[in-house]
Amino acid sequence: MVRPGVTTGLGGPTAPEPGSPALATEAAERELGLRRVWRSVTADTMGRAGLILFAIVVLMAVLGPLIFPFDATAVNSSELLQPPSPQHWLGTDELGRDVFREFLAAAHVSLVVGLAATAISMVLGAGIGITAGYHGRWADTGLMRITDFFLVLPQLPLVIALAAFFGQNLWIIILVIGMTGWPTTARIVRSQTLSLRERQFVTRVRSLGASNLRILRVHVLPNVMPLIFANTVLVIGGAILAEATLSFLGLGDPVQVSWGTMLHFAFQSGAIGRGAWWFFIPPGVGIVMVVLAFTLTGHSIDQAMNPRLRGSR
Amino acid sequence: MSLLEITDLRVQYTTPRGPVTAVDGASLDVDTGQVLGLAGESGCGKTTLALAIPRLLAREATIRSGSITFGGRDVLAMTDQELRSVRWGKIAVVFQGAMNSLNPVHTIGDQIAEPIRAHEPKTTAAQARERVAELLDSVGIDPGRSRSFPHELSGGMRQRVLIAMALACRPQLIVADEPVTALDVMTQAQILEVLRSLSDRLELSMILISHDLSVIAEVCDSVNVMYAGKIVETGPTSAIFAPGQVGPAHPYTARLRHAFPDIRGERTFIEAIPGHPPDLIAPPPGCRFADRCTIAVDKCRTDEPALEPVGAGHAAACHRSALVLGGAALDAAPLDIPAADGVDGQTAGGPS
Amino acid sequence: MSRFRYLGRKIVWLVVTLYFVVTFNFVLFHLLPGNPVRLLARSGHLTPQAVAEITKVYGLNHPPLEQYLIYLKGLLHGQLGISYTYREPVSTLLGQYLGNTVVLLAAATVLTIVLGVLAGVVAASRRGRGYDSATVTASVIGWSLPTFWTGLILAFVLGVWLHAFPIFGMETPNAVYVSQFQRIEDIGAHLFLPTLTLIIVNIAQFVLVARASVIEVMSEDFMLTATAKGLLPRRVLWRHAVRNALLPVVTASALLIGLVVAGAIEVETVFSWPGMGLLVYNSVLNRDYPVIEAAFLVFAIVVLLVNFASDLLYQALDPRVRES
Known about the structure:
The complex is a heterotrimer. Chain A is about 70% helix and about 0% strand. By secondary structure, chain A is mainly α. Chain A is elongated, with a radius of gyration of 22 Å. Chain B is α/β, with parallel strands linked by helices. Chain B has helices at about 45-50, 80-85, 110-120, 125-140, 155-165, 185-200, 215-220, 235-240, 250-255, 300, 320-325, and strands at about 5-15, 20-30, 35-40, 60-70, 75, 90-95, 175, 205-210, 220-225, 230-235, 310, 315. The model of chain B is unreliable at about 330-350 (pLDDT under 50). Chain C is mostly helical.
């Protein structure tokens, strides 16, 4: 699911200008570009905050379950929805299990689903975008009509309907989110490809007899990648929110508990009414942290590559 | 008593680098029915001076000293309400039509009628419509086009609309800021014709701002040449520009005159004035034109010249104006470019 | 291109897209293998009469093309299937719940737009680095909040903890009202938290757009012309500045409604507001496929219509667009 990305100005994202078209120095330019972006991101407060959050999240997801493993079967009916205590740092859930450990285990699931779904979205989006932009004419019109159609369809209802129809499996969820998140990427990639195609070095190389595939691989793709990368980071946020929402609504995988699923159980078991804040606040905070990590970093990268977005208007 | 009297006006802009004095002690008078030209290159302060009259300056600008009297009333002391009544009702502005001076989402008819109904609230819609039709007709636009939007009109037509709009409340003074600058030469001629005939017919006073001396020479009765925030020459256009007459008394005016070839005139050289205007945050002592002047002497760099009379109604701020009147300021190696080229030789140096 | 031709083109496009949405709906939910309707019919979990009825209504024993035509014909007659759980025609159910959702959507959208524009206009007049980055930061954080979670937090803080607002349903159960006004008051109290949730999550982006738009317009040349005309400042602001600044705001509003529609599902679930969203939630829990499918169709149509309306509004506001 993609929420329209937040922009700080009125225009949409614009394509970053690659450096000089001389073939020999393209690689060198890209090298410098990456380093420059990195420096810019670490210098920017937003970027720094994003990276720190990102580091925390990765630590949680990777080390957490190793240090504090979660046992889903440790049901303890005498300790249902207990407040935090020395034994249970974040209290217990509706089945008496330790919320802290559950939280760490769920981090892993939320992240994996978000990343996997994004991967699908990006491949689809970039693929469609490049094809439409490069081949132009009928391919472009046809693919863009389809893209526009999917852009208009409201994503959450579609995702819900698909998940409800096709199952509560984690993979189904990943597929469903992935297949609804590609339209914005496709549009962005398409415009960048279109402008690249018209640039002199592509027509020159073509006249030298290079095949389409080679042009795509060697010239178009490397120049579109930065844009795709910047966009990916923003799409991940949307995918993670989509997974959380689906799970909350009861469509998540009941075995592989994610933060959204935790919130689903919290809601269903009346934790709100009972004030069991330790159960329903942490998972939400986790989601916000992860999404912020990607969004802040993504925006910082975006600003680094597109200086026009910087500064107050 | 003149309709408009500006005395020793000083206007400053606050900029990140410090205060810039855009207009430094300028004075001018406009009589009823007089068309006065304000000439000079970009950044010389002419627009600032003109927009100061209805107090339409930007927030960063302050009028530091001096006075502006219109119809006997002190403009600088007016309340907001009085100002609103004077604006358009007595003093109207014709902006550059090529730019976005017309609101894109309202019809031109609505925009012309708007000040009429604001200043004369008893006007009915029908009366306003009639007046709009009259006004459009007077500037040469088919009244049937009052329902058009600005983007549907050509540049020349938009400029005519701005003129018609300015006349809507029968003002006494019109300030026209570069009214023909962005138009092609043919359209320029037409618009200037409209302006001139309107002024004659309606006894309108006009201040016409332009960096193009030929425009000023064609329409205005008198001209004030500005340079770096100061008025350096003032006098009747016929005396200064007409062939066989006295001619300019300030080196800058002389050079400017030769930067604009007249397609009908004799072959003469044109030449850009090398260099650029001084920094107005810290202007140099003495005459501000000294650095670019070909006849400057030591006194010019130390003593700032004041406006001194050099003829009937003709004054110039130059220590060596007598030399200029004798044709001396043009002693630089001329580039022999035929006048028919029609190239604007004026340098674009300095702030725009 | 004249106004009417532009309008005609837009209507045609709307109808075509609607048609594709309907077809898409059919293909996805009726035709694909593993179609649960078919599975259910064949699984033996339903009584023979139910199976017969479903087969008849959906034409399951006909070839796909005929099923498609039956489906289309049914749609045109408002025939959306029968709900498994409620045993009622889906269209009746929709009728009951749709109205409540519209109330929620209207309240949330209108308030977000009004508050957002006001905040944006104020922000535009107080341009300065501090306010700027604060608004951007708030916007980014707002985007990252899951709508349902924000609802949960608000429900807890304002509902459970502070006991300030009700968190369940549309009206107090078993309430007896002295007057119509009291009933409206009750509904209003129940409407407060769900609406607040939607506003909080969606307003930041809107404020940014409104602010940027007003700032941009303020620096246009025609603003100086308007002031030079000696018009009242109020008129200069509204008839000239805001009128032009509205255009991007209209576009943003269309996007906003898309977000609010999606958010409505989450919010209605959290607060048990008896609308389409809650209907969807319960249908998902009960695997009531006809309802889910119909609900999706309704959501899609609503969003399409709203986009169409906003296109029209934009065209009405900006004469330059009419020249295609």
